[in-house]
Amino acid sequence: MDEQERRAREEARAQRHRERLEKHALPCPHCGKNVLDHMTRCPYCGGMLVPKGYAPMDEKKKQKIRTICYIVGVVAAVAIAVFFLFFN
C-alpha cells in the first residue's frame, strides 16, 4: 500500500468520524456554539446543559435505593462477620 492510499483511507475514516459526531451536535443555548448532545456543561462558555433524553431521578426514588443498598450492605457485613466468627 503506498502513501497516497494510506492518506486517502485515513481521510475517509476521519470524515466518517466527523459525520457521526455532527449528528449529535446541538447549539449551546448560552453561546450558540455546537456542543455534543450528551454534555452537561458547555466547554466554550461553561453554561449548564441538559443532556438529550436525560431526566433527573426523583428524590424519593433515590432515597429508597439508598436505603435498600444500606440494608443489603449491613446484612452482608453481618453475614461475613458471623461466617468468620463461627468458621475460624
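the 2nd protein, sequnce then structure:
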Amino acid sequence: MSASDPARAARALRGAAAGVLVLEGIAVLFVPRGIAQTQEGLGGVRLTLLLVLAVALVLASGVQRRPQGLVVATALQVPLLATGVLNSVMWFVGGAFVLIWLYLLQVRRELLGSAFREPAPREDGETAA
C-alpha cells in the first residue's frame, strides 16, 4: 500500500512522531516522583539524567521536519526504555512507547516505501514515493 499524496502523508506522520515524542517527554517527567519514594531516593545524578532525557525528547519533537529528525528520535527510544532501570514501572511505560514508535515507523514504511527516507521530489515540483 502506498499513499496517494506521499508529501502529505509524510507531513502527517512527522506530526504524529512529534506528538509521541512530547508525550514521552511528559511521561519521563513523572519518573522522579516515583523514584523519590523508593529507599534509594532520587539524587542529583538521577534527576539530571531524567531531565536531560525529557528535554531531549521534547527537542527531538521539534526537529522532525529535518531529515535526521526521525533517526535522532528513534535513537532516543533506547534511553527511554532504559529508564526502567531507575523505576520498574518505566519498563512498561517505556515499552509501550517503543511499541507505538515501531508501529509509527511501520506505517511510514507502508505509506512512503521507507521508514526513514523522505518522498523524492518530482520534476513538476510535487513529491512522489
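Residues 6-113 form one domain. Strands lie at 120-121, 127-128.
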